[in-house]
Design goal:
Chain lengths: 126, 493
């Protein structure tokens, strides 16, 4: 018998795992370079959700120095994930810039077509 | 004894601040001058810190004056100081070399950006080594990775773009795995400070969360380390990046990843016997051996010199990981000393290849017939590096292989010792291929005389080549450091 509380209480973590696996799968399975980046983003977002979830305490308030507040959520993971989001944005921007350049150089952003072009080049140069 | 020293901070801040200055100036030569000044200043600071650590023990610096588990702390022990000196040396050698090499390989209006990225990469790599905070380490990991993606994409061939893209995808997955691991650890311990984690870890080590964290950290770092079979990004990235970048990254980036792996296994999990509870050892040894043999075999079949050396790098990473996987003091010392020696040897090899590319534009074996007669000094340096890769006595490579073989024998794993020697024979084959082409074949038809090789490229190559001979014949100093670092990692002071 599945514990109902575990199933619902851990809903954030289920979401994290689903997003993580979905993102990871897209990165591996998609041949389109843009879609790969989308997958990578989903993968990273799952980690953001993970960090944010683990800091939240049931009934906890924002961490304000006030006598009325006794239980508060841990602000540190939230701050950490702000940094990770910035890193994620930078990565995405760089990846997209690379795709623009790849498109200009190869005329396609499909991985299999690029590989075919590269193989041809290698055959010629050998 | 711990001493506080603000020089530790300068190691990271100086290149980090110099990079935007290069961008503001928008001038190729000015950017190069800045990069020169910074890389030599860093080399000076690194030397100072190395001797300070060797004399007085660990150095730390608390950022903003916040005490350790709450604030971010920089910390340098013997291992860290040793890795810092590797990065600083390679930086100081590559930047003067880069001037001519980059002028011929990167378009003129992008050169100042090249130096900005090189400085950022330097800053990130040094940051990884000096930081004592697991999340701060991730930030530096991404600073160094993002800048290295850009550096690789600056290569002339359009395949540099796809190589950079693939490295970006793999590198980001690796770094994301790393933060998942850090997050899981934080969940159990409530700390990000590496020294603090060491003391908390034993209490929670048996939980599944921590085991999952360890798995994520190991796989994530192995991706950045290019541990076989997670090395797929490496050969193309090294082949198509500008030559100076290849030399810089090959000698530093993977080494820093190995440093992170050591930190996780032996500092974060230092008080826990993870090798007893988790089958890390057979997995790592298996992958290391597979890398040593399969990557060396791939290297033998390569026609492109850069790609051959790139596969050879994957194989050499295998040796380092093998030393780590033994989890004995001698094994760790072997891995650590090979870190240093391989940086010298592979640095020499890639600088020499860069010089060949500069003067003749050729990188494939069939274009290089008789190159040893046309460029005797340069090829001599390359052959020194090749002998180092094999592990011939009197070169630095011999010292580390000797240490590794001794370590395997001490650990009663003599089949491993035999395999180390066997895989070295594969290195003999690919180095011989280069030697044969360079010295025993005659060019046909005679190629046009190439550009004259500037001394600014030949001298850095020889500095590293001579260093690899020096540390091959006078190994006491480096071996002592490696043993001290290994002893500290294993817990004894």
């Amino acid at each position: 018998m599945v514990d109902f509380h575990d199933l619902l209480g851990l809903v954030n973590y289920w979401v994290v795992i689903v997003l993580m696996m979905a993102g990871f799968y897209v990165v591996i399975a998609q041949g389109n370079l843009i879609k790969k980046i989308v997958g990578l983003n989903i993968f990273q977002v799952s980690v953001f959700v993970f960090y944010i979830s683990m800091a939240k305490i049931e009934g906890g308030s924002a961490p304000i120095l006030n006598d009325a507040i006794e239980v508060y959520s841990n602000p540190l993971p939230h701050v950490l994930i702000l940094t990770a989001i910035v890193v994620g944005v930078a990565t995405t921007a760089l990846a997209l810039a690379l795709v623009v350049r790849i498109n200009a150089a190869y005329g396609t952003i499909e991985e299999d077509e690029i590989q075919a072009i590269e193989h041809e080049e290698e055959d010629v140069s050998c | 004894m711990l001493t506080s020293d603000p020089w530790l901070l300068l190691l990271v801040v100086v290149p980090l601040m110099a990079a935007p200055v290069c961008v503001i100036l928008r001038h190729a030569t000015a950017a190069w001058v800045i990069a020169m000044a910074v890389s030599w200043a860093i080399f000076g600071i690194a030397l100072k810190l190395l001797f300070q650590v060797l004399d007085q023990g660990e150095v730390f610096y608390r950022i903003g004056g916040w005490d350790a588990p709450w604030g971010i702390e920089y910390r340098l022990d013997t291992l860290g100081a040793f890795v810092v000196i590797i990065i600083a040396t390679i930086g100081a050698v590559v930047v003067p070399y880069a001037k001519k090499s980059v002028e011929s390989e990167v378009s003129k209006e992008r050169i100042y950006l090249f130096y900005a990225m090189l400085l950022l990469c330097l800053s990130g790599l040094l940051g990884i080594t000096v930081t004592g905070d697991a999340f701060n380490l991730f930030v530096f990991l991404e600073i160094s990775s993002l800048s290295s993606y850009v550096l690789i994409s600056l290569g002339q061939d359009r395949r540099a773009l796809t190589a950079a893209y693939r490295y970006l995808i793999m590198g980001t997955i690796g770094a994301t795995f790393y933060i998942i691991g850090v997050g899981l650890m934080y969940q159990m311990t409530g700390s990000l400070n590496i020294a603090d984690l060491t003391t908390i870890m034993p209490a929670v080590a048996d939980t599944r969360t921590v085991l999952a964290a360890l798995a994520f950290l190991t796989v994530g770092i192995s991706l950045k380390l290019a541990l076989f079979p997670l090395h797929m990004w490496l050969p193309n990235a090294y082949t198509f990046a500008p030559s100076a970048v290849t030399a810089f990254l090959a000698a530093t980036a993977t080494k820093v990843s190995l440093y992170v792996l050591l930190r996780i296994f032996f500092t974060v999990f230092g008080e826990v016997d993870i090798f007893a509870t988790f089958p890390i050892q057979p997995v790592l040894i298996g992958m290391a051996l597979a890398g040593m043999f399969l990557a060396s075999l791939s290297a033998i079949w390569q026609e492109n010199l850069k790609r051959m050396m790139a596969y050879s790098s994957v194989a050499q990473i295998g040796y380092m990981v093998l030393g780590v996987a033994l989890a004995t003091e001698a094994g760790l010392a072997g891995g650590i000393i090979h870190l240093f020696n391989h940086a010298l040897v592979k640095g020499t090899a890639f600088l020499a290849i860069g010089a060949i590319v500069y003067s003749s534009g050729a990188v494939t074996l069939k274009e290089l017939h008789g190159i040893g007669h046309r460029m005797p000094w340069l090829m001599a340096a390359f052959i020194v590096a090749g002998l180092g890769l094999i592990g011939v006595p009197l070169t630095a490579g011999f010292v580390s292989k000797w240490q590794l073989v001794t370590a395997t024998l001490e650990a009663d794993m003599w089949p491993l010792a035999a395999l180390i020697l066997l895989s070295s024979l594969l290195a003999v084959v690919y180095v011989w291929r280069i030697f044969e082409v360079a010295y025993l074949r005659h060019p046909h038809p005679v190629p046009p005389p190439g550009k004259k090789l500037p001394l600014s490229m030949l001298i850095p190559t020889w500095i590293l080549a001579l260093a690899s001979i020096y540390f091959g014949t006078h190994a006491t100093f480096t071996l002592d450091i490696a043993h001290t670092a290994a002893r500290q990692l294993m817990g004894g002071m």
